[in-house]
Write a structure and sequence with these properties.
alpha/beta; eight-stranded parallel β-sheet; 535 residues; 15 strands; three-stranded antiparallel β-sheet; 41% helix; TIM Barrel
Amino acid sequence: MFRKILRYGRFGFLAVVVVIALAVVGLAVALSPWWWLLAAPALVLTALGAWDLAQTRHSVLRNYPLVGHARFILEDLRPELQQYFIERNHDGRPFDRDVRSTVYQRAKGIEAEEPFGSERNLYEEGYEFLTHSMVPRPLPERQPTARVGGPGCTKPYDMALLNVSAMSFGALSSHAILALNKGAAAGGFAHDTGEGGISEFHLRHGGDLIWEIGTGYFGCRTEDGNFDPEKFAAKAAHPNVKCVSLKLSQGAKPGIGGVLPAGKVDATIAEIRDVPEGETVISPPYHRVFATPRELVRFIARMRELAGGKPTGIKLCVGTRVQVLALCKAMLAEDITPDFVVVDGAEGGTGAAPLEFADVLGTPLTEGLMAVHNALVGTGLRDRVKIGASGKVATGSDIVRRLAQGADFTNAARAMMFAVGCIQAQSCHTNTCPVGVATQDPRRVRALDVGEKSLRVERYQHATVRSAQQIMAAMGVDDPAGLRPHMLLRRIQASGEVRSYEELYEWLEDGQLLKHAPESWARDWERADADSFAP
């Protein structure tokens, strides 16, 4: 109900209050001073509504003066309501902590400590935890980075542990993009453009960009929708572009292209994407520039050359291990490797996707990440390729878990949206986002104050990476490279059995697939073909 009020209420309630205030003041002046008893609260509400419109801290209040305060009242009641439902949860298990609240706290610079200990059921099946050391390490002063750049790269880039994941201008508003990029510039981390092309909003504040190219080749496409190498080279040469990424698939909807509704395709977006204004933009489900693993790695080399030697990589949601191994065989055959691979988990989010795709298609991040890591290790290529992890990464412990599973860095989309003010109104596809994050309606976009929200993005990223460093220090680890699978444990059965990731999963040794593939990998390795993406 509150979401509907937020979507359609707008300034109506404030207008009614103003009319009532004027009418009652008129009655007080003309008829009787007793009317001031009603005029006073009406004037107070009018003043509060005016303050809501002028302030920059809360986007909800700027777009929904007076009405928006209901959300904060409910937010204050949340701990009591949550505890009420915890005690009555049908299966007896408590809810997880509200990750969104954690992001909000860190973005606002509020300490996230809470009293009385964990609300998690530490004995439920599937519960995961990290091992600490009896000799913790001192907390490093500087945040660690991962050097991205293999043998074919002449301009390596130092990637932060947590970066802004792919979210396009068009899906997000101009002010949201400005806030994310300004926060990235101030905090020294990277901002992935998403597949919607590079806009002036990505460039205005000078933040480091990862330019993502999808199946629509937006910003570097010909009139008939093919890849345009000249346009690509010209834009990739911009000093703000630090890396380029070829998107193969997205975790939330692998196997289908993105959709940008016609209502969001204004003149600015049409120009950036090289598409007609006012028409729905549908990305193809597949790329035109390659059809085999060998052709893919050759195209990666071509992109890197066109980009002047900048790090060039791919982003994908893992489908089958056979196809991952086929890609590795192509890398070996051509002696070409991407500088990085971003693994997007099936748990990742999107503005809109078919429910069946979101629920049952694609490999979750844990399995997908370890498949890519082991495939590269087993083929002796791991030292040439950095791995990023994307998919519901929001906290310091999320970062540490993914690093222990094989990643070198992580990307966050949903959490970064929370940092710029997203309240999960789930109206991204309607162009009526109540806080100006996922809309192209200029009246709604104005509510998002770029200066305030960029500071929150910077704070959130810094606090979350700092949290990851604190956890690693408690584990006795000086550097992310020191994290190992045996440091991450999972409760297998409620009866008490606990195993580490080293015991639960098979971890290949360097070059093992080239020497003698273990039995569990031998069939997939044999089926993998550098000239075919057959599953």
